Amino acid sequence: MKNLIYAELLKLRTTRMIYGLALAALALVGISAISAISVAGNSRGGPALNTAAGIRNVIAAGSAGSTLVLVIGILIMAGEFRHNTATSTFLISPHRGRVVAAKLAASALVGGALALLSSALTLAVALPWLAAKHIHVDIFSHNVGLVLLGGIAATTIYATVGVGVGSLIRNQMAAVIIALAWVSIVDSLLVTFAHEIGKWTPGGAAGALANRVAGDGLLPMWGGALLFVAYGVAFAAAGTRFTIRRDVS
Amino acid sequence: MTSIQINGLTKRFGNVVAVDNLNFEVAQGSVTGFLGPNGAGKTTTLRMLLGLVEPTAGSSTIAGKPYRELVDPFRHVGAVLESTSFHPGRRARDHLRVLCVAAGLTVSRVDQVLDEVGLADVGDRRVKGFSLGMRQRLGLAAALLGEPEVLILDEPANGLDPEGVHWLRKFLRTYADQGRSVLVSSHLLAEIAQTVDDVVIIAKGRLVTQSSLADLADRTKPGVWVRTPQAQVLRDALAAKGIAAEVQSAESVVALETTTEAVGIAAAGAGVVIFEMTAKHFDLEEFFLELTTPTTNPITEGASR
To answer: Is CATH 3.30.70.100 correct for B222-281?
Structure first.
């Protein structure tokens, strides 16, 4: 099992894809943090920076790269079918459940590491800037620390959801497009315009966990956490089951 | 000793029966050619043998166990299934490193197998720049990592240049001579005829024959093709002497399992005029075609070419 996880991490390190996506995710986080601070307090920019909600909005930029982490998870699994490498992967380990488990672990590790970097980047952008505006931010406070942790958790779970999606939809391109459209269009629209439904979607749950969607009507953070973990487990289980049963040809 | 055993293997895709109650075995220390035209079910059979495709019925074992139950299968069985199974952006050496790590093998094997297949100089290149022949070699390198006692190759000669094919033949021969077993599929008998000890021939998912190559060669027949204006008269004259013959067209006859001398004597006895006469040895390839496409007769068709 340990060997399989190492192999998955080595697979990621030996192609350029992961570096491009990681850079893109970090760029997204940086831009989100900058724009959150720039527009705070405006009529469309949400609460002012000197309020707790305003600070939460800025810190939540740390999970802005989570959709790209979802894509990384998808590529870890669907890439095996895109390039036909699934054959040699399953020849080495005919116990496909172990292969999927190793991919889930590797994806979560990479997603988690990227989430930590994203949090650090957000703080690096926000703390000096806010200090210059004479706003003191205590990163160990309930307000900031919890949002950071929620963002890291949400991003990590997105990485495992990606592996599940990549197992269920083996066409890599289709999997990426469907997942991105789902998270960034369908869930967002539901959360914004029909939050009674939207709060139960994966995007709504992740938003509640990461405190990224600053709107009423979402579940409380702990509720979002439970629901999003449940989504992660469901996608992982469905993906594993599907992968074990399908013929590889 | 048997190293691969296929028992009643069957695979149905919807209404299509890709493999139909197939039985055969591969002896240890031999090279076995797995032959059949494209679409005969060779690849599906190999994928079932390797646990990649679930059979509808039947079973298969390698070294006495189903593939999925082998402990460390990579150390027992090496397989090359398609030439495209690499990430194009990954370097050849990295591809092999990944497999080594996953299989728990020492990474020093990477350079050894690259050397063995003649790719040592290009190991640091990304696979997308590889020719089909280089990909085949890289696939073979991957299969050799675990120093397996059984090697399974699906159409390995595809994309190899004549020198590459020659190299592959020598490689497989040496491999089997070390007491290990090779199962190699092909749609061309000629491609592997010089290498294999035994052949398993399938068509439309069914076993046509399993025999040694020597026995197969014994079953090919010599024949004589004759051009004459009296085709029917000659046929009857040959038949009277117990020589099987067929009228092919108004002007030609094919006599089977006989010699030009025997045909000439029969023709003279019946007063038949002969314009042209050729002895033909119908080769293994034609015989293979006959076995796998039962609707045509290669003896007569081959003669009219």
So the answer is: yes
